């Protein structure tokens, strides 16, 4: 069992790839003839060559999962794509990773062989990782050195090229690596081979677990030549380096490997047989031709009965695969929608500060714990149990989302504007909005932003006790938040806030209002707010969680007054305005909340990860065991291809839903996916109940007996024919 949904090969889970009971994808052995001779080295009874393969697998899985963990936040934060587009591109990439294994199997089995295929596509893979890392260097096109790329399409193009190469590389080697490892063992080493697959599985889990912990930590570091930004180049660069290491290690063991010549691909024969049956049935579609028991029987004119019988077994199982993509549609959203959900939550869990993209490690950790527990408690003969648990995980995600939505601020849309009043003067002020009057005391603010339709915001008036009413000249921009600064009966200023959403990356926005003197500078943890003029506000700058050191600089601050302050402990995703006033002769800071911090803790995601992990264990293991038990020995590769295809289709379902983008509320989308999987679960339960189990080994044994019976008859017939021919000649 792997920490991911890669049911085959050295790609996502080690489900199928680690099963010594069947042939890996595209592996058809007719004659095991080595491509060349190699010296036989052994260590503790194992071929020394497998250690190179295991190290290669660890590095490759670290590379893949480390890169994949960053993708969704890279799209939303670096490219500034919205959640729907980011999700669609993410799942397109994952789908490609599950479509390309078929191509890799064809190349390995029909042309290059497994070793050359792994080397060739690993080079493509390494280049793809390097190109993706280069795409994240903001200095590449940041010509004005302001920290923002001037040619964003260049970065997008490089990233898409890189991801395309990665999909080809990781998918192409997926069916080859574990199978190549199995090739290193000789007859009589079945015990060692089985243990190898366990070690191979451990390498997958170790690589994926470590990478999803480490690369998000690298991402939050700051780096850059001209301006410091989130260090995506380092976070992507380390996986690229690990992929290069994986390639070098694999090539280093070349002289020790046992290599076999490509033997042809059973998938090609299956496709040809099915194609011929369909064409032949179409040619004989008129009523004058008698019906045959099964549509594949129309291939009897060209293909032998054994092959047709084997394909019948496979298509019977493939029919049950039809509902399965819906499970993967939910499962793979752990790396997209669930990660985006985590960005709106509080990442402080006890003494740990968790990054949103690190929450995926919960699946990797839980799977190691849950495999033995679920195996003992849950009936593994029920794939429907896995589907139901996955469905319930999205129900839990919907409830978590509802809790998050309660804490999210409402921002203006369309023709709306939002206004908050901040009184920075020494008088009590009254603000008259259309249909509403607001009283604001000294150095205080309204509790929340008020929303108005710009067309109906006809007048705003300011007054204070004993003073005339002052009209506010409209200076509001639709779709934006504004702060109305007031400090006297006739004194005001309208400030456009510039924040129309929660601060990204869980950071906190801080700005300052100068009600102290003529002009001053403020430094917060080394970041300078320069020349904040009297009764004016700075722009927001953004900081991570925790307390901050604030230093004021002005000639008007007396020497005996302190100019250094300590902020309160910031959380995640908040925004505050600090008003600088006088307390006697010395400066004083008052903080006002503009956007509340994230209050829903990321720990609330653990139950949904727990349910999804249990569902993964039950679904994947049961599906693997069922598929292999119902397939003939030489057709297991075809079923692996079919299984991988269900994962690809599942991701395509997600990108269609995300691409449509018609569901505005995220909780409603979670409920939609949960409902769809629940319906599919019921359909699959009915299909499974109607399924009749077979024993492929018994069927194949019967064919073997029939062939043995036919052989003597064939010999006697040939002798009799030869005798008749001889008599004729005589």
Automatic annotation (TrEMBL):
Swiss-Prot/TrEMBL GO biological process terms: protein transport
Compartment(s) where it occurs, according to its Swiss-Prot or TrEMBL record: Apical cell membrane; Membrane
Keyword line: Cell membrane, Glycoprotein, Membrane, Peptide transport, Protein transport, Symport, Transmembrane, Transmembrane helix, Transport
GO cellular component, one term: apical plasma membrane
Main localization of the protein described in the UniProt heading: membrane
Example of a GO MF term: oligopeptide transmembrane transporter activity
Residue spans crossing the bilayer: 62-79, 85-108, 115-134, 154-173, 194-214, 234-257, 313-331, 361-378, 641-661, 667-688
Entry membrane topology: Multi-pass membrane protein
Reaction(s) catalysed (UniProt annotation): glycylglycyl-L-proline(out) + H(+)(out) = glycylglycyl-L-proline(in) + H(+)(in); L-alanyl-L-leucyl-L-alanine(out) + H(+)(out) = L-alanyl-L-leucyl-L-alanine(in) + H(+)(in); N-acetyl-D-muramoyl-L-alanyl-D-isoglutamine(out) + 2 H(+)(out) = N-acetyl-D-muramoyl-L-alanyl-D-isoglutamine(in) + 2 H(+)(in); L-alanyl-L-valine(out) + H(+)(out) = L-alanyl-L-valine(in) + H(+)(in)
Taxonomy, superkingdom: Eukaryota
InterPro entries, alphabetized: MFS_trans_sf (IPR036259), Oligopep_transport (IPR004768), POT_fam (IPR000109), PTR2_symporter_CS (IPR018456)
Residue ranges, annotated region (Disordered): 1-29
Primary role: Electrogenic proton-coupled amino-acid transporter that transports oligopeptides of 2 to 4 amino acids with a preference for dipeptides. Transports neutral and monovalently charged peptides with a proton to peptide stoichiometry of 1:1 or 2:1. Primarily responsible for the absorption of dietary di- and tripeptides from the small intestinal lumen. Mediates transepithelial transport of muramyl and N-formylated bacterial dipeptides contributing to recognition of pathogenic bacteria by the mucosal immune system.
Subunit structure comment from the entry: Interacts (via extracellular domain region) with trypsin.
Family: Belongs to the major facilitator superfamily. Proton-dependent oligopeptide transporter (POT/PTR) (TC 2.A.17) family.
Annotated protein name in UniProt: Solute carrier family 15 member 1
């Amino acid at each position: 069992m792997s920490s991911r949904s890669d049911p085959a090969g050295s790609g996502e889970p080690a489900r199928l790839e680690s099963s010594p009971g069947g042939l890996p994808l595209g592996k058809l052995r007719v004659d095991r003839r080595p491509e060349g001779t190699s010296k036989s080295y052994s260590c503790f009874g194992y071929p020394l060559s497998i250690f190179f393969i295991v190290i290669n697998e660890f590095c490759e899985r670290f590379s893949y999962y480390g890169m994949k963990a960053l993708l969704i936040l890279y799209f939303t934060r670096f490219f500034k794509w919205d959640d729907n587009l980011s999700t669609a591109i993410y799942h397109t990439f994952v789908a490609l990773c599950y479509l390309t294994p078929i191509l890799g199997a064809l190349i390995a089995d029909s042309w290059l062989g497994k070793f050359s295929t792994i080397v060739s596509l690993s080079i493509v893979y390494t280049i793809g990782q390097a190109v993706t890392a280069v795409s994240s260097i903001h200095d590449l096109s940041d010509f004005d050195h302001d920290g923002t790329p001037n040619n964003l399409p260049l970065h997008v193009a490089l990233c898409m090229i890189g991801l395309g190469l990665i999909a080809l590389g990781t998918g192409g080697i997926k069916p080859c690596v574990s199978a190549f490892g199995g090739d290193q063992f000789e007859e009589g080493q079945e015990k060692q081979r089985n243990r190898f697959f366990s070690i191979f599985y451990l390498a997958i889990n170790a690589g994926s677990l470590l990478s999803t912990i480490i690369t998000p930590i690298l991402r939050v570091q700051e780096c850059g030549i001209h301006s410091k930004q989130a260090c995506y180049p380092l976070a992507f660069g380390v996986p690229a380096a690990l992929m290069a290491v994986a390639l070098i290690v694999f090539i280093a063991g070349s002289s020790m490997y046992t290599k076999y010549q490509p033997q042809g691909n059973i998938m090609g024969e299956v496709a040809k047989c099915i194609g011929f049956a369909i064409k032949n049935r179409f040619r004989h579609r008129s009523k004058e031709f008698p019906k045959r028991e099964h549509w594949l029987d129309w291939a009897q004119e060209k293909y032998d009965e054994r092959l047709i019988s084997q394909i019948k077994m496979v298509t019977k199982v493939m029919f049950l695969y039809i509902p399965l993509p819906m499970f993967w549609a939910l499962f793979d959203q752990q790396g997209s929608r669930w990660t985006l959900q985590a960005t709106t939550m509080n990442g402080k869990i006890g003494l740990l500060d968790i990054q949103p993209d690190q929450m995926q490690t919960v699946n990797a950790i839980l799977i190691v714990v849950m495999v033995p527990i679920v195996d003992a408690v849950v009936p593994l003969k029920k794939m429907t149990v896995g589907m139901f648990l996955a469905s319930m995980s999205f129900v839990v995600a919907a409830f978590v989302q509802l809790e998050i939505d309660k804490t999210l601020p409402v921002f203006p849309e369309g023709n709306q504007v939002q206004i908050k009043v901040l009184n920075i003067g020494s008088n009590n002020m009254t603000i008259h909005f259309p249909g509403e009057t607001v009283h604001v005391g000294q150095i205080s603010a309204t509790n929340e932003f008020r929303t108005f339709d710009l067309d109906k915001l006809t007048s705003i008036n300011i007054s204070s006790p004993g003073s005339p009413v002052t009209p506010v000249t409209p200076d509001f921009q639709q779709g934006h938040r504004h702060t109305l600064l007031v400090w006297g009966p006739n004194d005001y200023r309208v400030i456009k806030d510039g924040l129309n959403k929660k601060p990204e990356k869980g950071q906190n926005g801080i700005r300052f209002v100068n009600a102290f003197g003529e002009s001053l500078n403020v430094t917060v943890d080394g970041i300078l707010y320069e020349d904040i003029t009297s009764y004016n506000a700075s722009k927001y700058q953004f900081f991570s969680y925790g307390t901050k050191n604030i230093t004021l600089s002005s000639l008007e601050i007396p020497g005996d007054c302190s100019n250094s302050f300590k902020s309160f402990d910031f959380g995640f995703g908040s925004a505050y305005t600090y008003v600088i006033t006088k307390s006697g002769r010395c400066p004083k800071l008052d903080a006002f909340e503009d956007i509340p911090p994230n209050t829903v803790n990321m720990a609330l995601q653990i139950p949904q990860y727990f349910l999804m992990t249990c569902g993964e264990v039950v679904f994947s293991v049961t599906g693997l065991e069922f598929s292999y038990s119902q397939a003939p020995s030489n057709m297991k590769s075809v079923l692996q291809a079919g299984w991988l295809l269900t994962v690809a289709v599942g991701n395509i379902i997600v990108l269609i839903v995300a691409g449509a983008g018609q569901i505005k509320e995220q909780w409603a989308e979670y409920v939609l996916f949960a409902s769809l999987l629940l319906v599919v679960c019921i359909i699959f339960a009915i299909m499974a109940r109607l399924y009749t189990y077979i024993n492929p080994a018994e069927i194949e044994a019967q064919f073997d007996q029939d062939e043995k019976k036919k052989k003597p008859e064939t010999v006697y017939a040939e002798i009799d024919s030869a005798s008749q021919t001889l008599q004729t000649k005589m």
